[in-house]
Design a protein that fits this description.
single chain, alpha/beta, Rossmann fold, 9-stranded mixed β-sheet, 3-stranded antiparallel β-sheet, 9 helices, binds adenosine-5-diphosphoribose
Length: 313
């Protein structure tokens, strides 16, 4: 059986573990600095597997030895947002956590594929790439698949149809400057511009960009976790089963989309080697302008982190 490690047994990590176990992707190791939390949740999830005739085992631990030889390591460790916070506000604290987690995880799973969920994702995945020394194909951030799901749901709700009939793509940063591709959004081959008035589309795009905050404001104690937990496992599934599914992920660009040397959300094909291919779609002028601003924000935040870390060091 495959081995999948999930680091951080909080809300996102636990839901990712449930999704991986339910899909029977492999045995799951759930690691948290709070070992009892990880062990308790692991027991609960494994016992739920017995109810659906599944032999998958989820092990809880605080010891990286138990994660040895994982095929995929998913990082959700970190602090999540509270009302009034942006993902960028988590920068320095989550960078410290990420650094220690990546070093320990790759010591025991040197051949794994790393998937980063900790926010702000585009900068945390860059940090994981720098620290690990892994090839760019093996370090991936989860973002666009979640944002694309939110976009689908809002369009479907507006048109009173099923989400599965809507095709979406969300590029760039995972934050308020993300780029939901409105000119590429379609329902059964029909562009949404033919189905909805311009102002409704713009309102939906704005809601997608702030969909995480909408949930943070309702929960009051943390950020969303059901959809992020499931989204990251869709990525792990395409990798472990070598499905070659195309989904938007934060990956290292070297010239694609006119970007050199940054982790940006773009559509990629995920298979056994991680990022098998980067798909370059032609953006409209409006999408292209928004994408440039989004990439600029990623660069500024990464630079901000580097400056803060240099001052600290
Ligand atoms: N090593 C291992 N686990 C850690 C470490 C560490 N150094 N630091 C923190 N953790 C664990 C915490 O003990 C906690 O159980 O990470 C877990 C985080 O869980 P939650 O607070 O529930 O946060 P969650 O909602 O899961 O979000 C985690 O994912 O979506 C992003 O923005 C979100 O960055 C946040 C991350």
């Amino acid at each position: 059986m495959e081995k999948i490690t999930i680091i951080g047994a909080g809300n996102v990590g636990a839901h990712a573990a449930v999704s991986a176990a339910t899909l029977e992707l492999g045995n799951v190791v759930l690691l948290d600095k709070n070992g009892d939390l990880a062990k308790g949740k692991a027991l609960d999830i494994t016992q739920s597997m017995a109810l659906i005739q599944s032999d998958v085992i989820v092990t809880g631990t605080d010891d990286y030895k138990d994660t040895a030889d994982s095929s995929v390591v998913i990082i959700t460790a970190g602090v999540s947002r509270k009302p009034g916070m942006s993902r960028d506000d988590l920068l320095l604290i989550n960078a410290g956590i990420l650094e220690s987690v990546v070093r320990q995880a790759i010591e025991y799973s040197p051949n794994c594929i790393l998937i980063v969920v900790t926010n702000p994702i585009n900068t945390m995945v860059q940090l994981a790439y720098d620290i690990s020394g892994f090839s760019k194909e093996r370090v991936i951030g989860m973002a666009g698949i979640l944002d694309g799901g939110r976009f689908k749901y809002f369009i479907a709700q507006e048109l009173n149809i099923g989400s599965s009939e809507v095709v979406t793509m969300v590029l760039g940063d995972h934050g308020a400057l993300m780029v939901p591709l409105e000119d590429h959004c379609q329902v059964n081959g029909q562009p949404i511009a033919e189905l909805l008035p311009r102002e409704r589309i713009e309102a939906i795009v704005k809601r997608v960009q702030h969909a995480g905050s909408e949930i943070v404001n309702l929960l009051k104690t943390g950020s969303s976790y059901f959809a992020p937990g499931l989204a990251v496992i869709q990525m792990a599934k395409s990798i472990l089963r070598d499905d070659h599914k195309t989904m938007p992920c934060a990956v290292y660009l070297e010239g694609e989309y006119g970007v050199d040397g940054a982790f940006v959300g773009v559509p990629v094909v995920l298979g056994r080697n991680g990022v098998e291919k980067i798909i370059e779609i032609h953006l409209s002028d409006k999408e292209s302008a928004a994408f440039k601003i989004s990439v600029e924000h990623i660069r500024e935040r990464t630079e901000d982190l580097n400056n803060k870390r240099n001052i600290k060091a």
